[in-house]
């Protein structure tokens, strides 16, 4: 049975959230097409327990030095490893977030820091090149943003890009996941008169993506 891992990064999941509605249309469509798939959801804005902190750095340095961990580090490493194992065992990934200050939310970045582990999700070959170890998997990015980054008639500054989506595609590629797509609800604040139409179009695309994912 395929396992779908949803990494949701938004503190507001109630009425009025374009991010939540985008995800809702996608996942309902996906469930209709794949009713037997296992779906695991983590809202990392509510719970992100193993950030890249002093324990994580100490564990990394001791691993390189082949040194023993202290009891606190062992507990941290053991619990964190469960999340990493879950990520590695998933068949499909769904990343859901609003854009925060031209990037993904900090908690989603922290989640990536947790699961992007050398010798587990990727490794280095003898020449120092990074090789991804997660094969035959796919991912999709669902994101809502007030401005827009893909329609030429509303991009006023060509220097500003959707760095969050680019970042997710890059790190997933580094871990071996190259089947990566996205659905975006964007421009509602830039063009409020047409906000309802913008959202309806995005939700329709999310439902189509759910059928195809």
Overview of this structure, please?
- The chain has 213 residues and is α/β, with parallel strands linked by helices.
- The chain contains 6 helices and 7 strands.
- The protein has helices at residues 18-33, 54-65, 71-89, 106-115, 163-174, 195-212, and strands at 3-8, 38-43, 92-98, 122-124, 130-132, 138-145, 179-186.
- Helix 5 (163-174) links the parallel strand 6 (138-145) and strand 7 (179-186).
- Helix 1 packs parallel to helix 6 (195-212) and helix 2 (54-65) crosses helix 3 (71-89).
- It is globular.
- 32% of the residues are buried.
Short description:
The chain is α/β, with parallel strands linked by helices and 213 residues long.
